[in-house]
Amino acid sequence: xxxxxxxxxxxxxxxxxxxxxxxxxxxxxxxxxxxxxxxxxxxxxxxxxxxxxxxxxxxxxxxxxxxxxxxxxxxxxxxxxxxxxxxxxxxxxxxxxxxxxxxxxxxxxxxxxxxxxxxxxxxxxxxxxxxxxxxxxxxxxxxxxxxxxxxxxxx
Length: 155
Prior knowledge:
The protein has 5 helices and no strands. The chain is an all-alpha fold.
């Protein structure tokens, strides 16, 4: 004679609440991973800039290598080059910042979904329309997909 617990063990059945909890945990993890990828992209670009600055400092040191009579000046040349490098890494130019922002936006947009044909909301306020569209989209995802997406609100 089979009991419910033995059937559950043999079939791997999971209750609806546990599945929903698991889905929400996965959604949180996916959001965290996306955020981490954005930050990693920024760190990579800063690291690339830093490597360029270090290469510049190395070339400045080799071109400014003093002869034996100027060996007392060597620490000053190195210290000055290091200070210049630190200042330029900390002060990101507006163009570099814009490039980093564009790269981050591109990475975010890779996961975007466009849905057409949603029924129009019957409310008049723009904010209420967005909320209604958001709720409709979430309802469609819950009904027809296995996961509830995390939405980015830009308003």
